[in-house]
Design brief:
The chain is mainly α. The chain contains seven helices and two strands.
């Protein structure tokens, strides 16, 4: 009788693990192919991916029963490549992680909201200068995101693989609009500020 997987397998699933499980959900792959697929889809901008960490992660997925070896191949003088397959437990872990994080509003405590909350400790001019630098960075980020989406379309990458990019683009544009408005309010002295 097969063991039941009633305990949540997502307790130790890292973002890189999720990315690898999702690739194995599509088809069996070897780590080198996983690395290139993540880079082609620009998912290496969503999770930190280094060859060493990827190999370590896939070994951990195998150890934890979320992936299993399904074959090895050797082509020419290249090192032997081990191909992995998603297990039922891995499929469950992936589904549970995606289900949870699509539906849950999480406070990840990014530093910007705290910096804005405490901006009154600087002069309005200092805040304006710092926000202008941030605005320039956002413009670069928006350009990079738009270029990345264009590259994905040119490579015929399915739109579903670009959802994180379109989300990041929407968030960056919204932040750009907010910061632009904030700078305008500082310039017009519409924003009340404590005495300095």
């Amino acid at each position: 009788m097969p063991a039941q997987t009633t305990a949540s397998p997502t307790t130790d699933v890292t973002p890189l693990s999720v990315a690898l499980l999702a690739l194995l959900h599509e088809r069996d792959m070897h780590p080198y192919e996983m690395l290139h697929t993540l880079r082609d889809r620009r998912e290496d901008h969503l999770v930190k991916v280094r060859p060493g960490s990827l190999y370590h992660c896939i070994e951990r997925l195998e150890r934890d029963g979320l992936a299993q070896v399904c074959g090895t191949e050797c082509v020419g003088n290249r090192p032997e490549r081990t191909t992995y397959r998603l297990t039922d437990r891995g499929r469950l872990a992936l589904r549970e992680w995606v289900h949870e994080h699509l539906a849950t509003v999480e406070n990840t405590y990014p530093p910007l909201p705290l910096a804005l909350a405490e901006a009154h400790s600087l002069s309005p001019q200092e805040v304006r200068e710092r926000l202008t630098i941030r605005l320039n960075g956002l413009e670069v980020q928006i350009d990079e995101l738009e270029a990345g989406l264009t590259q994905m379309r040119e490579r015929d990458v399915l739109d579903a693989y670009g959802l994180a990019w379109t989300h990041s683009l929407a968030m960056s544009r919204a932040e750009h609009d907010y910061i632009t408005d904030l700078i305008t309010r500082i310039d017009s002295k519409d924003l009340t500020w404590p005495m300095h």
